[in-house]
Design goal:
Elements (H helix, E strand, L loop, with lengths): L1 H22 L2 E6 L2 E6 H12 L6 H21 L7 E2 L15 H9 L21 E2 L9 H5 L11 H5 L3 E6 L5 H4 L8 E7 L5 E8 L2 E6 H8 L9 E5 L5 E6 L7 E2 H9 L4 H8 L10
Parallel strand pairs: 1-3, 4-11
Antiparallel strand pairs: 1-2, 5-10, 6-7, 7-8, 9-10
The structure holds zinc ion.
Length: 291
């Protein structure tokens, strides 16, 4: 009895702390050369206005609002010594002035005000998870550790919506386009092979051969160097072409970590509440109470 009273008092204290914390937070947003300051909830509204698919169902928008809020709150901690907390960029979160948000986005942010994901589900901590999202996973998500070599491990979520209908793409890597890695066009012996995959199947490590030189590169680094608009994900097969190029046949769009936006839309349309969507993509993280 006493123990349960103490537990509920601690929960109430924690909720108050979260509430005080999030309602006073301002996010420093770097937009081009300018640093703008936005109250947290206005910032989240602007991110959803920029990032959420038009016509997305309310439960999906609510889940995305919690994810974007978590990312921003953690960024405040991680980047406190910098001039900014977040950058208006696809590497962080895209942002537009919140006045551009439609009524559905405004409602989703209001419904989830103050709520964010707790890092590692640490019940005694109010530290926000550095939660990520991406466009379409291709069938399953991967952990940050598997994709970037650091961060949480072993978080893999099956994504029924993307398994049933995964986005497919292809891109031909011409020998000249690997100049970014070599400082010169590739030699006649150019090849690009996947040598290590994540638990789901994304290319974790690639071996680039050219001019007798062999380099091992992380999949996400290759994607960044060749262009996110060309190599849409690291979940691909690499095959040599007759003309010396390498063809990538891939699935999914984005890094594949955290919430899959396409999959969350499907779950929400099938009737899942935002909490259930978050539990699927962040099985190790509890959601804070919000305000
Ligand atoms: Zn998915």
């Amino acid at each position: 009895m006493l123990r349960s009273m103490l537990r509920s008092m601690a929960r109430a204290r924690r909720a108050r702390r979260v509430s005080r914390h999030t309602s006073t937070v301002c996010i420093r947003v770097q937009r081009g050369a300018v640093i703008e300051r936005w109250p947290l909830e206005r910032y989240v509204t602007g991110v959803l206005a920029a990032e959420a698919p038009v016509g997305a169902p309310p439960a999906m928008l609510e889940a995305l609002a919690v994810v974007c809020r978590s990312f921003a709150l953690r960024a405040v901690v991680i980047r406190r010594s910098r001039r900014y907390d977040v950058v208006d960029s696809r590497l962080d979160q895209m942002f537009v002035p919140p006045e551009l948000a439609d009524a559905n986005v405004v409602a989703a942010v209001a419904t989830t005000t103050g709520a964010y994901l707790l890092d590692g589900g640490q019940r005694r901590s109010t530290m926000a998870l550095r939660a990520m999202f991406h466009t379409s996973c291709g069938g399953a998500t991967d952990s940050p550790d598997a994709v970037w070599g650091h961060g949480a491990e072993r978080i893999v979520a099956m994504c029924p919506g993307c398994s049933a209908r995964s986005v497919r793409w292809d891109h031909v890597v011409e020998p000249a386009s690997v100049r970014a890695f070599l400082g010169a066009p590739a030699g006649k012996d150019f090849s690009l092979d996947v040598v290590e995959r994540t638990p789901v199947g994304r290319a974790r490590t690639l071996r680039l051969t050219s001019g007798g030189e062999v380099r091992e590169l992380r999949g996400e680094d290759v994607r960044r160097a060749l262009g996110y608009d060309h190599v849409l994900s690291t979940w691909f097969e690499a095959r040599p072409e007759p003309n010396g190029a390498v063809r990538l046949d891939g699935r999914g769009i984005g890094h594949g970590v955290g919430l899959c936006v396409a999959g969350a839309v499907v779950l929400a349309r099938d009737g899942a509440a935002s909490q259930r969507i978050l539990e699927r993509y962040f099985p190790d993280s509890a959601r804070s109470t919000g305000t």
